Amino acid sequence: MIATPDRTPLPREFFDRPVLDVAPDLLGRILVRTTPDGPIALRLTEVEAYDGADDPGSHAYRGRTARNGVMFGLPGHVYVYFTYGMWFCMNLVCGPEGKASAVLLRAGEIIEGAELARTRRLSARNDKELAKGPARLATALGVDRSLDGTDACTSDATPLKILTGTPVPRDQVRNGPRTGVAGEGGNGDIHPWRFWIANDPTVSPYRAHVPRRRRS
Q: What is the 3-state secondary structure (H, E, C) of 127-185?
């Protein structure tokens, strides 16, 4: 018999821990996006940890900016950034205020609201691809910079909330190098900080960093 996922919101204390403890513990949790068009719920299957000033792969490695300011705030808030001039990606802030660590939400399984997600992800060949990758996940959920700084732990009505769900047993969690990260930050021997559920079909494929060519 499969247990029903726990719909209790995760408390802020869950996120007020080291990012390498939080990241694998997010697998199997449920993210709920509430919109005027209806709700979408997603079960997290793949994440990446980023550890602020101690991590050359982190947006906060060189300090606070207007872009990454939310990372320095309270745990349990949403950090959304714009990348490659076209995509949004979503993170959950971890650790004590001022530490600037966060978990990138890389992939998940849409468990409610697939009809709505399909209208945003017309190129998806099937429902397993709706949120298979961080930009696809944000697109499927309708996440953009307007949600940067959203509190995902509040008991009040909020457009994004993270629920307890069904935690994944540690023997089903895999880890390895982060996707598309350059230099030391992408070295899997030093930072094997991508975590995913073994054999889950919604997990995105690993891709090493490829330098972008400047147009002549």
A: HHHCCECHHHHHHHHCCCHHHCCCECCCCCCCCEEEEEECCCCHHHEEEECCCCCCHHH
